[in-house]
Structures are given as structure tokens and as C-alpha cells.
TrEMBL record:
Keywords: Acetylation, ATP-binding, Ligase, Nucleotide-binding. This is acetate--CoA ligase. The gene is acsA_2. GO terms for molecular function: acetate-CoA ligase activity; ATP binding. It comes from the Bacteria.
Length: 579
């Protein structure tokens, strides 16, 4: 696969060159440089995201454009957002909550969610967003694990999902209901905010004060609650600037929900800290609506995920006709490996490639990225961010051995960047196991090439071992979706007497395609040509949909458990099931 050249000369947005940035500078230092006026003795994410801009004379700039499902378009300035979040912070204190209290939110993407996030942070309390679409049980267990003190939700969600067990969570002191009226025992947020003062000074939190708890996506098992601290804002600032080109004043749209870490780090904090105008769409994925938003809002920078990109590809280029995407300047993707096919497709359709980047709930920010400063090798995650040292390691005699370029091993990072998680809630031993010999072990397998680009191979749990070959599902899946009929694919290993394991693949088809034995043979034929007989799937089955988490990740472990007749494990984050 060729290289897509986007050298600095092509840059129309920020564009930076690693050498100009200073190759050896720390992530702390690069973040500090962007947060002008940051005091020496305190650091508060909420203050840096909104109040700072108002103090520095940018209160009138639009911070957030809310596109409601039913109420049209609302533009909210930095001053309005500072005001709303200050009221929220005052409200928490008025109800007896104190620094460190845990504030959970389970609601759709409405302005109150953003005010609650920022108000909680300004109040020095800890913010945890949950997907509104979670069922009662996932909401309850996460609130239990997180010792929730406050919940912000809607009347309908409260009645359907929370009222029945609310009393079983003794730590829960206050339930705030968005809107003008509330069920018994809850407080209506609308009037409560109006009655509260908008005069609030952000709490001078310390770098190590807890700020956020994020639950992981649950792709590989039971979700873990990763704790992040206020100092993380240094990394939110610099990674947004250097990986996503977030510059003051640009229009930016992150399609992720805050219930997934991407929707908080890069859907709330990083864009606001970098003083962009961000789009918040309340609706779920809908292609026409999305293309319409890109055009009408003149979105310049767009951050999305492979699952959405594959849906666009499935609808075809025809679906983009009649839309004007000329405002777009930079596209990025995260969450799953981005198939080379998708990079090339977007380059054709939007005139711009999607830039893949890699990170985790645990890392709190983008670690490896295709940035504007380097050419893209489609299928690669890119290179480590400035200030980040990544390596490929292997367990060897109880220690870790750093591997050579071209060898597959576990992707590891040298700890110490500001947005690194500080613990897993109530699971200190599991947290400790992530560190060895001065490395943080990601649990993902990857390879670095001679040019320093990193290539995702698969999650350590998903690796397939067949006749002495190590096979990453991503490689197999990328080859399968090169077939004109295939929309998505998932590959797993199933036991085999002679080979140890053989590859089995599940695929969904593009519209207008029907499953048949002939098609299966044809797809297998292409896979054999691309991958060789040892790596190509032995069997391909057709599905209407693949099981996915709410953050859009294919749950290979579920396919495997079902294949082997094993227990399904934790499926609290399952959104779409296999059909
Ligand atoms: P859990 O840890 O609960 O199993 P999860 O790992 O899916 O869930 P997240 O923290 O949301 O939870 O996702 C991080 C993981 O997503 C990474 O470890 C990696 O496996 C995958 N991922 C993220 N970005 C990319 C990417 N650009 N390419 C390949 N994989 C990616
Ligand atoms: Mg994980």
C-alpha cells in the first residue's frame, strides 16, 4: 500500500514540525506552553477549559453549537458556558457536597451535560459520564463501583432505569433532573440553576487531585474505572493541538459521546482548552444528518471512529453527492484499527485522508498518531506523540525485552505523561500489573517499522496462533474488507487439532449483496491471495451485524465465547448484537 503524502508544505491548518517543537521536550512542558497564564500553585481542568478564556477576553466566542434532535440549533458562548458551569458548581456546594465528591451523569448530549462536566471540575469534584443508553444494571454497577454522590439525569431515564434501585446506593445524596420538574426525592435542575449565583471561583486544585473517572469500553472483559487527575489537562491541551490541529477559533466536531473517554477528552476538555468552537449533535448516527452538519456548520476538523467510517463506506460515494465538504481541513479516527481501505476511500471522497490515532481510556489522551507533520502509511497508527516514548516489548525470563523493528510484541509506553491513569478504582492489583521494568503495558500487540511507524496487530487476547504463525485479526479483517461485497469483518481463532488454531471470520455485506456459497468462496479466495493459505480464514460466515460495544468496537471475545459454547462474560457495554 502506498504512502499518502501530507507533508508540512500541504498544511493549511496549524502544522508543526517535530524539530520546531523541540524533540526532547516533555509533554508537561508542551502543555504548559499552551495554557497561557497557568498559575504555578494550582491547576484546574474546568478553569482552563472555560473561565480562562473569559478572563482573557474571549467570552463572546462561541464555545459550543448544540444541534438538538427537536429544538433546533443553539450557540453557547464561552461566557455562557462559564456562567452555567459556575451555577452548577455553586449548586453542588449549596447541597453540602465538598471537594472530591463524585458526580455521575447519565443523559444525552445536551448543554446541561457540558455545564455539569465543567461545573463539577471547577468545583474540585470528580466527574464520571455514563452512556444514557446503558440499561439499569450497567448504570447501577458503575455508580456502585464509583461511590456516586450525585447523579444528573433526565426524568424519563430516572423513572425507567434508576428509581427502582436508587435507595440501594447509600452514597447517593442528590439526584438532579434536567428540565423544570422532577420526581419525588429529586431536584429539577432548570429552576435550581436559575436560583443559584453564577459567581464562582474555580477551586485551586492540585495536579494530583482526582478529576475524572472513566470506565473502559468493556471490549475484553469487565469494564475498569480509570482515575485521572487535574494535571491531565496539560496533555489534553497539547495532544489536541498537535494530533488534531485544534487551534483557537476553528470549528471542530468530535462525534463520540462523553460516555466513552474520547467524547470527554476530545469532545469536551481538549477542544475547549484549545478555544475551538465545537459542534455537539444530540442525535445518533445518521448519514444524511452527518453530511448536512459538515456542510452547514462548515466543520474544519472532524474526529470520528472506524465503525462510523465503515458505515459511510457502506453507503457509498453516492450518498455524499450534493454535499459540499470544502470547509474540511483535517480528519482523524480512533477506537479501532482503521483499515487502509478506509484511509484511501476518505481521501477520494473528502479529498482528505482520515488520520488514525491510538490511545486508551487508561492513557487519557492520544499516544500514537498520524499527524499533519508526517506522511500517512495507510493501515499504520502513526508515530508516538511529542513527549511520548513508545516501544515494543516481550516478556523474557521474567523481565521485558525491547524488540527489534519489524518484530511483533506488546505495545508499551514509558510512564509519566500527565493524562496517565492513576489507578483502577478498587483494583489496585490489576493496575499494578500494568507496569513492569519502567514500562506501562497496553495489552495491545503491535509492530514498529524501520521508519518508526507503529502498526496495530490486535489485542493480546485476540491473537490467533496457527501452525506456528501469529495472526492478528486486524490483518485478516483488512484483507476481507478489500472485497467489494464486504462491509465489516471480525476474525477469531478456533481450536484445530493439527494447526492449534485456525482463523474463522464473520462478515457483513454491503447493501444489495446476498450471502451465497459462491460469494464465500470468492471472499476466501481473495483472502488467500492477500494473506496466504496459512493465515486466511478457513471458514467465513455471513452476519447482518457484528456484536459491538457502545463505543463501536467489535467484541471478538463474544464471537469466540459463543463459538466455543463458553459463558459470555460481562456484556454490559454491548450495544449491537450479532444477527
Ligand atoms: P476494555 O479495556 O474494557 O476491554 P477497551 O480496551 O476497548 O475496553 P478503550 O479504552 O475504550 O476500552 O479502548 C482502547 C483500546 O481500543 C486500545 O487498547 C486498542 O485495543 C483499541 N484502539 C484504540 N484506538 C485504536 C487504533 N487507532 N487502532 C487500533 N486499536 C485501537
Ligand atoms: Mg482496554
Amino acid at each position: 500500500m502506498g504512502i499518502i503524502g501530507k507533508t508540512p508544505e500541504d498544511c493549511t491548518v496549524a502544522c508543526w514540525r517535530p524539530a520546531e517543537l523541540g524533540e526532547e521536550r516533555s509533554a508537561h512542558d508542551l502543555g504548559r506552553e499552551l495554557l497561557t497564564g497557568l498559575p504555578d500553585d494550582a491547576i484546574n481542568i474546568g478553569f482552563e477549559a472555560v473561565d480562562r478564556h473569559v478572563e482573557q477576553g474571549h467570552g463572546d466566542q462561541i464555545a459550543l453549537i448544540w444541534l438538538s434532535k427537536t429544538e433546533g440549533r443553539t450557540a453557547i458562548s464561552y461566557r455562557d458556558l462559564a456562567d452555567m458551569s459556575s451555577r452548577f458548581a455553586n449548586l453542588l456546594y449549596a447541597h453540602g457536597l465538598t471537594k472530591g465528591a463524585r458526580v455521575f451523569v447519565a443523559m444525552g448530549r445536551r448543554p446541561e451535560l457540558y455545564a455539569a462536566a465543567l461545573g463539577t471540575l471547577k468545583a474540585g469534584m470528580v466527574f464520571t459520564p455514563l452512556f444514557a443508553a446503558f440499561g439499569p444494571e450497567p448504570i447501577r454497577t458503575r455508580m456502585e463501583i464509583g461511590d456516586a454522590n450525585v447523579l444528573v439525569t433526565t426524568k424519563s431515564l430516572y423513572k425507567r432505569k434508576i428509581a427502582a434501585w436508587r435507595k440501594d446506593i447509600p452514597s447517593l445524596q442528590l439526584v438532579l433532573i434536567v428540565g423544570d420538574d422532577a420526581p419525588e426525592g429529586c431536584l429539577a435542575l432548570g429552576p435550581a440553576l436559575e436560583d443559584t449565583s453564577s459567581d464562582f471561583q474555580a477551586i485551586p486544585t492540585q495536579p494530583e487531585d482526582p478529576a475524572l473517572i472513566h470506565f473502559t469500553s468493556g471490549t475484553t472483559g469487565k469494564p475498569k474505572g480509570a482515575v485521572h487527575v487535574h494535571e491531565a489537562v496539560l496533555y489534553h491541551a497539547m495532544s489536541g493541538r498537535y494530533a488534531l490541529e485544534l487551534q483557537p477559533g476553528v470549528t471542530y466536531w468530535c462525534t463520540a459521546d462523553p460516555g466513552w473517554v474520547t467524547g470527554t477528552t476530545y469532545g469536551i476538555i481538549s477542544p475547549l482548552v484549545n478555544r475551538v468552537t465545537m459542534i455537539v449533535d444530540e442525535a445518533e448516527f445518521n448519514l444524511d444528518r452527518w453530511y448536512g452538519i459538515l456542510q452547514q456548520e462548515q466543520v474544519a476538523i472532524w474526529y470520528s471512529a472506524p465503525t462510523a467510517i465503515r458505515m459511510m463506506m457502506r453507503a457509498g460515494k453516492e450518498a455524499t453527492e450534493g454535499f459540499d465538504f470544502s470547509a474540511l481541513q483535517f480528519l482523524a479516527s480512533v477506537g479501532e484499527p482503521l483499515n487502509p481501505e478506509a484511509v484511501i476511500w476518505s481521501n477520494e471522497v473528502f479529498g482528505l485522508p482520515f488520520h488514525d490515532n491510538w490511545w486508551q481510556t487508561e492513557t487519557g489522551g492520544i499516544m500514537i498518531a498520524n499527524t499533519r507533520a508526517q506522511d500517512i502509511k495507510p493501515g499504520s497508527m502513526g508515530k508516538p506523540m511529542p513527549g511520548i516514548h513508545a516501544g515494543i516489548v516481550e516478556k523474557d525470563n521474567g523481565g521485558l525485552r525491547e524488540m527489534n523493528d519489524g518484530e511483533i510484541g506488546e505495545l508499551a509506553l514509558r510512564p509519566g505523561w500527565p493524562s496517565m491513569m492513576r489507578t483502577y478504582l478498587h483494583e489496585q492489583a490489576r493496575y499494578d500489573k500494568c507496569f513492569q521494568d519502567g514500562w506501562y503495558l497496553s495489552g495491545d500487540l503491535a509492530m514498529r517499522d524501520a521508519d518508526g511507524y507503529f502498526w496495530f496487530v490486535g489485542r493480546a487476547d485476540d491473537l490467533i496462533k496457527s501452525s506456528g504463525h501469529l495472526i492478528g485479526p486486524f490483518e485478516v479483517e483488512s484483507a476481507l474488507i478489500e472485497h467489494d461485497s464486504v462491509a465489516e469483518a471480525a476474525a477469531i481463532g478456533i481450536p484445530d487439532e493439527t494447526a492449534g488454531e485456525v482463523v474463522k471470520a464473520y462478515v457483513t455485506l454491503n447493501p444489495g449483496q446476498t450471502p451465497s456459497e459462491e460469494l464465500e468462496r470468492d471472499i476466501r479466495g481473495l483472502a488467500r491471495k492477500r494473506l496466504g493459505a496459512a493465515v486466511a480464514p478457513r471458514e467465513i460466515v455471513f452476519r447482518e451485524s457484528l456484536p459491538k460495544t457502545r463505543s463501536g468496537k467489535i467484541m471478538r471475545r463474544l464471537l469466540k465465547a459463543r463459538e466455543l459454547g463458553l459463558p459470555e462474560g460481562d456484556i454490559s457495554t454491548l450495544e449491537v448484537d450479532e444477527k
